[in-house]
Amino acid sequence: MFFPEVWIISGKEKISKEDFKIFYSGYIKHMKYIKRHIFSDGASVSYFGRVFFIRLKFLHKRNRNRCNLAIIEGNNKENIIYNAIGNMLIPIWVNLTIELPIKVKSKSLKSDIRNIKRQDLKYRISLSKKDMNIFLDDLHIPMLKKIYSDEADIIDENFDRKLEKNKRELLLIKKDNRIMAGGLIERRGKIPKFLLNGIIDVEERKKSIMTSIYLFISEYLYSENEKYLSLGNSHGFIDDGLFQYKTKFSTYINKSETWKHGWNLKLLLENEGLKGFFMNHSFLYWDLKENLLCAALFDGESKNKMLSKVRKIKGIDRIKSFGFSL
After folding, report:
1. What is the CA radius of gyration of the chain?
2. Mean pLDDT (whole number) for 17-21
3. In this predicted model, what pLDDT tens digit does every residue of 99-124 receive, in sequence order?
4. Does residue 166 sit within a domain?
5. Domain, as residue range, for 136
6. 196 vs 279: CA distance, rounded Å
């Protein structure tokens, strides 16, 4: 993008509650994620306009908005152009895959399985257009709107609703003959992909309904002699809730499907909010010099807890520890 769009996000860093301001360049849907993940409720966004990409290299000299950090979308080559933090590119999307059958190791997953059995949940596979419409219009879309409100990334009217055996299949979960949840599976490539999920009531997540979708899809595909299942993409922040949730299924990172397009970081103005960002938001990054996928952990109260989780994730080439001081 020669003239990328730019926004200024201002508010309190989510954990430290310190003032923090980000200069964001890239796509609006990715900017909304950064706002939601990094900032407390009440953060404001102001549209800066379009900027010639070369100007992004000199932000540290022309920081009139007194931003603390610049996050610039780009690829591995643009990391040098933007004069970003050396050789680091946070992948916007990280592909998480599991080997079938699921290996039940985590206490959380064991607890979910017991809960699912108590509820006597059943599943069926459907190729019905009517079922597909129910899944999208009554489960998937309302769930996203309930969780993310006006920042939900909703499928558009051109989304393909056609189902076909061994290509695109719908799994529906019932309890007492009532549809409770569902998941859409795509089987066109070498590895089946879990595309979309949906539940009838967001509060049902507390009763392991969401986990049942993952388990039943895995059970079905294993019965079809599939060996792997892609759980789809998650953002490259290790502390992201969806990323953490998926790791309880003994996932591994499929690096061949993990984006080399990502977030370049550029330090602009140090303050406690910037320190809070690094201390509280561990992330994956491509080491562009050595072509390794690394995990960055910064000194802080959450470091040891995060370290134990990161060590369980297969596919990370190296874990690197950093300090941060003002």
Report:
1. 21
2. 98
3. 999 999 899 999 999 999 999 999 99
4. yes
5. 101-226
6. 32
